[in-house]
Amino acid sequence: MLASTSRQLAPALGYLGSRQKHSLPDLPYDYGALEPHINAQIMQLHHSKHHAAYVNNLNVTEEKYQEALAKGELLEAIKRDFGSFDKFKEKLTAASVGVQGSGWGWLGFNKERGHLQIAACPNQDPLQGTTGLIPLLGIDVWEHAYYLQYKNVRPDYLKAIWNVINWENVTERYMACKK
Fold first, then answer.
1. How many whole angstroms separate alpha carbon 88 and alpha carbon 56?
2. What total number of domains does the chain contain?
3. Amino acid 61: pLDDT
4. φ, ψ for residue 164, nearest 5 deg
5. What is the pLDDT of residue 18?
6. What is the pLDDT of residue 159?
7. How far apart are the C-alpha atoms of 136 and 165, rounded to whole Å?
8. Is 81 annotated as a binding residue?
9. For residue range 30-41, what is the model confidence (pLDDT) as tens digits?
10. Could you tell me the residue range of the domain that residue 115 belongs to?
11. What stretch or stretches form a coiled coil here (predicted)?
12. Is 160 within a domain?
């Protein structure tokens, strides 16, 4: 049942899983276990060199893919409106940390001005309804979003959340609201 459930969730979680570094798995047997049919030297070479190269190349390719997703018009808008991606990240993180109690940190689009803006909303207050901004990226800072793993250390959660943001979705939202 677990294997079946894992297979069903794999496509849905594929994007999230691709954000994590892959590592070379250990073989479930010794390199010499297939002797005399395949010797230990061949197994060691294939596993520790060839298979390791495939895993490393996969990681490099995924990193380049993620960088490419964040590039283009959205990245240019981030640079224009915040100075750099790092400054944007710092500002959104600070706004999210600063939410008193529960709420959300947001990257929104101001359609009237044609610019990106950062906002924070307490509780369930909707971004568009309270600020007029079109939501592009929301960071949930209600404790239920992070407490079991990060306890009450919201800044650690916010540092980690950047590793799982779906930039393809944020870019699609940005492109749609510019029309």
1. 30
2. 1
3. 82
4. -125, 10
5. 40
6. 93
7. 11
8. no
9. 999 989 998 999
10. 33-178
11. none
12. yes
Tokens describing residue 67: 């960088």
Tokens encoding 151:
């306890």
Residue 127: name the closest of 158, 159, 95 by CA. Answer: 95
- CA distances 78 to 28, 87, 175, Å, are 47, 9, 13
Show the low-confidence residues of the chain (pLDDT under 70). Answer: 1-19, 66-71
CA 98 to chain centre: 22
Phi-psi region for residue 171, left (φ > 0), alpha (ψ -120 to 50) or beta?
alpha
pLDDT of residue 23: 92
User: Of 57, 66, 77, 75, nearest to 17 (Cα)?
Assistant: 66
Looking up residue 65, the CATH number of its domain turns out to be: 3.55.40.20
- Any binding-site annotation on 37? no
Is 22 one of the annotated binding-site residues? no
pLDDT of residue 144: 83
